[in-house]
Design brief:
about 850 residues; alpha+beta; three-stranded antiparallel beta sheet; 22 helices; 12 strands; flat
């Protein structure tokens, strides 16, 4: 009874102690949570206050932007700037919403931990829990209000961006389709205005030159010097790197198609880019040193643009038509036809460039619009007449294929197209649609030249990418000779070179064409930014820049992992004389770990939320349950092999029908190399589930045997002594355990012995056994010890006479002299034991 009371007291005491501990823990938890909430409250309030200020600032910016857009509805340049500002405003609003996402997630998780408030009839909760829930709910409501306002403003910004785009499209269409008055009175007004413009331009240019010479002489010379220096550096580098692609080799009578394409494309692109770099740097330095006045700067810029345009078209015609080198020509034209077509293209480019240059002068001088209209009218008429005149030429190559022979007419369809284009330009301009005529004329010359150059680049990339064609090019021959590349490597380099040529052709041609078709630089920047930072596929947003960053990060992590593997294996573990199998396991484990970490960082850098991959993981688990069981089993088995190490690289193992040396243990399978140099790939799951014999599990020591047989008359002790003497003379044989000879059996023909010895490395067994066998044979020959060979005596009994007596008269039958002797039956053969003396086998008849 006392024992029961004592036990009851003990239980009650322990229960009260546990309850007190729980209560104390709850109070401590509540006390710990309360400071955390009080600390987070000021932070949340400050973030809300800052977000509210940013939102109010964004609203004022949006209102000003709306007003500016309405006031600049006719200014395309201003609309471009406003579109860029609207896009920047949208990104800043997105940043405000993104800043609240982590806090909202924290509030959501904390409210889930606190649970729902108690319902009627349930016991009340602690006041601190109620206060915390109410504070979190109020904070979430405030954040929702701010984020709602941000979303509304973001939608308004998006509508404004679309409105700006619509206004620009309408402005572009109105500019092209605006009809101008084309009459003799307008021409007279333009003539008088032109005289005034010339006078004003001369005065402005003279005053600017005087000012520059007196006050900006040193900055002018500095700008010219820096521009020329940069041009010389660029030209020297380009000729150093691409000199062989800029010049045609006159010694080559029949250049290959790929050579003609490559030289035509690169000579046009590189030289034009070199001149463009010179012009851009010159304008940059003149502006940086304040040499250009505001009224002169657009004129100088237009002059540089006109020079670049004329040079590009000239290089293009020389590259495609090759007037003086018909064997390098890309089109089938006669020499006279190539020169005439090239001259027509250059003439139209000059007309376009002068129209652009004179239009810039009129705009800078503030001349009336009628003067610009008349200049564009004259340019359109001249270009139309050139097209019509070119349609009546005979530029096509003669039928005999001689470029010096008189050419043939254009194909009928081409001649009609040229005449229709020329007549259309003239009619459009004379009808008053001068802007449309000017736009079409510009696109015919400049866009056409850029498109054809880009097409030549794509053809060049295609030709370079063809199998076995890259080796015929200059670059392919250089790589083959300089880097000693084989045919396969040269073809792979050709594929990479072709892709690079595609990229260069598209990245240089497409932006230029877009600029000519009315896009601005800001538009291209915005397109590139959206393309690389935000590509939406339904509700998924993909960042190409993030993906590219992730790829680079993964590649960097992979290379760093490989370097760490080589450093640990070749420096740390090699100097520590670590076992080869341990080195391989460590190297493989570091490789898996490094690649996994690099993949995680790459996925995070690419902007992919790992939590969104839960659905993919669940689908993958279903796939594992059905079709990927073996793969996962092999993967897990590979990890077990690396951790438990039942065998390692370099071990001699036997598994089923496979026997050999382990060469590599990968995630899925293990490579075993047989002694015939055959590689056998064994799945890891088979090595885990089946029995595996390992000759070198703990060490490479092993026993080796050599069977020896001697004749029956040999002294067995003498044989044992000779074998032990010979084996003890071999340095590779271990002394502990010591070698020994076992007298196995009395054989049918011989006395059988077996020499047994141990080696530190079983890999030396073949060499040691061969040497010992030769030494044993040589010593036995010296000692007169015979190694027996099997010998049989065959006796044949002739029973022909007995057979005849049994069949007939009972008397022996007389045999004719020429009768053949019957063959003996197999049953009558008798096999006698071997003789004790070794001799050649003989058959007695």
């Amino acid at each position: 009874m006392r024992l029961n009371l004592l036990l009851l007291r003990t239980i009650v005491t322990l229960a009260l102690f546990a309850a007190g501990g729980q209560l104390q823990g709850s109070v401590a938890f509540a006390q710990a949570q309360q400071p955390a909430q009080t600390d987070q409250a000021p932070l949340a309030n400050s973030a809300l206050d800052q977000a509210t200020k940013d939102l109010e600032k964004a609203k004022s910016t949006f209102a000003a932007l709306q007003e500016n857009v309405q006031n600049s509805a006719d200014d395309d340049d201003a609309l471009v700037k406003f579109a860029a500002s609207a896009d920047e405003l949208g990104r800043s609003l997105g940043g405000i919403s993104a800043n609240f996402a982590p806090r909202l997630e924290q509030i959501k998780n904390r409210l889930a931990e606190l649970g729902e408030p108690p319902k009627d009839g349930q016991p009340p909760e602690a006041d601190i829990v109620t206060k915390e829930r109410n504070a979190l709910t109020a904070e979430r409501a405030q954040i929702n209000v701010v984020t709602g306002d941000v979303e509304n403003l973001t939608g308004a910004v998006g509508k404004l961006t679309n409105q700006i785009a619509q206004m620009r499209r309408q402005l572009f269409a109105d500019t092209l389709l605006r009809r101008s008055d084309v009459s003799f009175s307008v021409l007279g007004e333009a003539a008088s205005t032109f005289a005034v413009e010339v006078t004003e331009f001369k005065d402005a240019l003279a005053s600017w030159l005087t000012f520059v010479w007196k006050f900006k002489r040193f900055p002018l010379f500095a700008a010219i010097f820096l521009s020329c220096a940069s041009a010389l550096i660029l030209l020297s580098v380009s000729y150093r790197l691409f000199g062989s692609y800029l010049r045609r080799d006159e010694a080559i009578e029949e250049p290959s198609y790929i050579s003609r394409l490559s030289i035509a494309f690169w000579s046009t692109v590189i030289r034009t880019m070199a001149l463009a770099a010179l012009l851009v740097t010159s304008y940059f330095f003149l502006q940086s040193f304040n040499v250009l006045r505001p009224d002169i700067a657009p004129i100088i810029g237009a002059l540089f643009g006109a020079i670049g345009l004329i040079y590009f078209v000239g290089r293009f015609t020389n590259a495609v038509f090759a007037p003086r080198e018909p064997h390098w020509r890309l089109v089938k034209l006669s020499n006279l036809g190539a020169r005439s077509i090239g001259a027509c293209l250059v003439a139209m480019a000059i007309v376009n460039a002068l129209d652009y240059f004179f239009g810039s002068i009129s705009e800078a001088m503030g001349s009336p619009l009628v003067l610009t209209v008349v200049k564009s009218l004259i340019a359109a008429l001249i270009i139309g007449l050139i097209l019509i005149a070119a349609s009546f030429g005979k530029p096509m190559l003669a039928r005999d294929g001689n470029p010096d022979s008189p050419g043939r007419r254009w194909p009928r369809g081409m001649a009609i197209i040229l005449r229709v284009l020329g007549a259309g330009l003239i009619i459009t301009a004379l009808s008053g649609y001068v802007g449309l005529a000017r736009f079409v004329a510009t696109q015919l010359i400049i866009t056409g030249a850029i498109a054809v150059t880009m097409y030549i680049g794509l053809l060049s990339g295609k030709a370079v990418s063809r199998q076995e064609d890259f080796g015929e090019s200059l670059l392919g021959g250089f790589l083959r000779k300089r880097l000693k590349l084989g045919p396969v490597a040269v073809d792979q380099a050709g594929l990479v070179a072709g892709l690079c040529i595609y990229a260069v052709a598209l990245l240089t041609g497409v932006p230029l064409i877009l600029l000519l078709w009315g896009f601005h630089v800001q538009d291209l920047q915005l397109i590139a930014y959206r393309l690389f930072t935000e590509v939406r596929l339904g509700g998924i947003s993909i960042s190409l820049l993030g993906i590219f960053t992730g790829i680079l990060l993964f590649a960097g992590g992979y290379l760093a992992t490989r370097w760490l593997q080589r450093w640990l294996d070749g420096t740390v573990m090699a100097r520590s004389h670590v076992d080869l199998g341990v080195r391989n396991s460590v190297k493989t484990g570091i490789g898996y770990l490094g690649v996994g970490v690099a993949a995680i960082f790459a996925v995070s850098a690419a902007g992919i939320d790992l939590s969104s991959l839960a659905l993919v993981a669940s689908a993958l688990s279903v796939g594992i349950g059905f079709g990927l069981q073996n793969i996962v089993s092999n993967f897990v088995s590979g990890l077990i092999l690396l951790v438990e190490r039942p065998f390692k690289v370099g071990d001699h193992i036997i598994s089923g029908t496979a026997e050999g040396i382990v060469k590599r243990i990968s995630v899925r399978a293990t490579e075993i190399e047989t002694f015939r140099k055959q590689s056998i790939i064994v799945p890891n799951s088979e090595l885990i589930n089946a029995s595996v014999g390992n000759w070198t599990h703990r060490n490479k020591m092993g026993r080796s045997e050599i069977p020896v047989s001697v004749a029956y008359h040999t002294n067995p002790q003498k044989v044992i002594d000779i074998l032990l003497e010979l084996v003890n003379d071999v340095p590779l044989v271990l002394r502990n355990p010591d070698p020994h000879v076992e007298f196995l059996r009395f054989g049918t023909y011989s006395l059988d012995f077996e020499l047994r010895f141990f080696l530190a490395d079983m890999g030396d067994g073949l060499t040691v056994r061969n040497n010992l066998r030769m030494a044993i044979l040589r010593r036995f020959q010296e000692e007169g010890i015979d190694i027996p060979l099997p010998q049989s005596d065959l006796t044949i009994h002739r029973q022909a006479d007995a057979a005849a007596a049994a069949l007939g008269s009972g008397k022996p039958a007389a045999r004719a002299d020429n009768a053949e002797e019957p063959e003996a039956k197999a049953d009558d053969d008798r096999v006698r034991p071997l003789r004790s003396k070794v001799s050649d086998a003989s058959v007695k008849k």
